[in-house]
Structure formats: structure tokens, C-alpha cells
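[09:14] KT: can someone run the structure on this one? pasting the chain below
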Amino acid sequence: MTERASGPMRWIRERFNIDPLIEFASHKQVPEWRGSFWYYFGGVSLFLFIVQVVSGILLLMYYQPGEKTAYESVRFIVTKVRFGWLVRSIHSWAANLFILSAFIHMFSVFFTKAFRRPRELTWYSGFLLLALGLGFGFSGYLLPWNTLAYFATKVGTTIVAVLPGVGEPIMELLRAGKDVSTATLTRFYGLHVAILPAAFTLILGLHLMLIQTQGMHEPEPWPGGKPRYMPFFPNFVLRDLLLWLIVLNILAILAVWFPWELGSKADPFGAAPQGIKPEWYFLFTYQALKYFPAKLAGIDGEVVGIVLFGIAGLLWFLVPLWDARTPRGIRNRFINYVGITVVLFIIVMTALGVR
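[09:31] RB: done, C-alpha cells below
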């Protein structure tokens, strides 16, 4: 411990061995090049996850899961609790912005080839975090127990049931029964507030540890041939915090000017609303399944579509393996073409689904 340390810092240093951490932060450097802007979306995703955790805890103080209490408790939050409507809007908008930021982060890692050795585990853990984020969105969508959420969940879980052999058991596992009911709501509540957060936190810890031990990905080759770096602290940290502040302002504007609507309470015996659609991050899959014919080589077109999407997701997860033979510093044009095709497919299918 240095002699100059005094006050709170000295108190902390006397009780915790933080000198190695301070030494690490003061000497760590981040590659600085024209693509380094994309580094910040990982931090933005982390910030939005923290916002979701904090706002979710505040909502849990009043939310009561159950067919007779879920909708009423959310309505109480948005109408009676001081700033409850704002906290709910922030939670909902942060969830959507988190998934958007995570998608951007994933594609930036893909196009900069940051998944190559020795960062394969970083890619795998990041992919799992995005999958868990989508699970957060799907499970949390039902919790207000409104009409749109009820029937969207019914449609979403029905799609799984078309898979031969395993579809029905998976659907019943998700629904906790044959149909969407109070048991489904309770199961989704447990997933949303306990199981998924626990899994996400563990994998996030591994993901952050891998990033810190391996360092930021450096371009191959360096533009101009000469490596350039910036200090992690305070240069990179301050830029990261500035972007967090900008995102917080965007989040506040969306939450205030476009508050998340509650809608009407779900009626399991009522008719499904016209034109029901999933959330935007599932919309490209939903829209693409519409273009499959009813029968394809004697098999239901929807089954073929779901299987193809499953295979595509697995191949995307394993991209470090099928790019493994590419020498360091060499661009794989095939990989680039695949990534561009996937991005265009998602954008076009989502745009067609929104119409």
C-alpha cells in the first residue's frame, strides 16, 4: 500500500488486496483503430442488463403472479405507484434495447473475426448470453397477463409443437400443461426472475473473465501496419461511460414519450386479436415461416422451416470451428458473405413482418 493513500482508499486497501487490480487497470491497453468503435456495444449491453436488473427488482416489490393478480398488480404499478409507469417503461424499453445492442455486438464480433483462436469460448459464451436474453424477452412478455401477451405466448409455444416426436413434450414443458394457463404464468415467472438470471449471471461472469484475460481483439493486419493503443483507464472507461450516458438519455426519452402500454386483461376464452405478431426480435423467424409451403417433400413446411432455423443457429454458434483453418491475418470472404446474407435476411424479413 502506498503512503499517499488516505481516507476511504486507505481503509479499503487495508482490508482488501486491490493493489493488483489497480495495477492491472493502470497498465491495460485497448487497441485503437477505425473498428474500435464496435467494442463499446459490449459495454452498452452490460449497462442495459444492469438497468433491467435494477428496474426488475423495483417491479418485483409490487408484482404478484397469478391469473387473478398479475394484471391487477401491473395496473396498480402503472396507475397508483409513484413513477411506477416510468419504471415499467424503462424495464420494457431496456429489454428491447439490450437485445438490439447484443445483436449489434454479435455481428461486430463476427465481421471483425474476433471469434478466432484463442477467443472461441468468448464467442460461445456470448452466443449463449444472447439466447438467454431472448429467453428473458419471451418469458417476461407473458407476465402482465394481458390479451396480446397471452395469445402471442400461445402462438409461440404452438410453433414448437409441430416438431415430430419432441414438439409436444417441449410445448407442455414450457406451458406446464396442455394449454397456456396460470401454471404457465407461474413457470414463466420462475424462469424470468430466478432461473434465467442465475444462468445469465454465471455465463456473464465467464464472458467478462475471458475478455479481461485475453484482451480486446486486435485487427489482422493492423491498418497502416503500426499497432496503436489507448489506456483502458481512464481513456476507454470514460468513453464507455459517455456512451452509457447517451444510451440512458435515449432510454429516458423512449420511456417518457412512448410509455409501454398495458392493454386489456387476458381472457383465455376470448377471441385472439387480429394480426397478432411476436416481438420484433422474433419477427424475422415468424415471417420467414409463412413462406414455406404447406407440404415440402411430404413433410409439413413449418416443420422443415423450424428444423432449418435450428440447423442455421447451430452453424452460427459453431462458426469458430468452420473458420478454424483460415490463417491469422487472412480475411475469409465466404464468412463475410454469410454474415451479410444473414443481416439482410433479418432486416428484410423483419420489415416485411412489420407491414
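[09:33] KT: thanks! The chain has one domain: 25-354.
[09:34] RB: yep, looked fine to me
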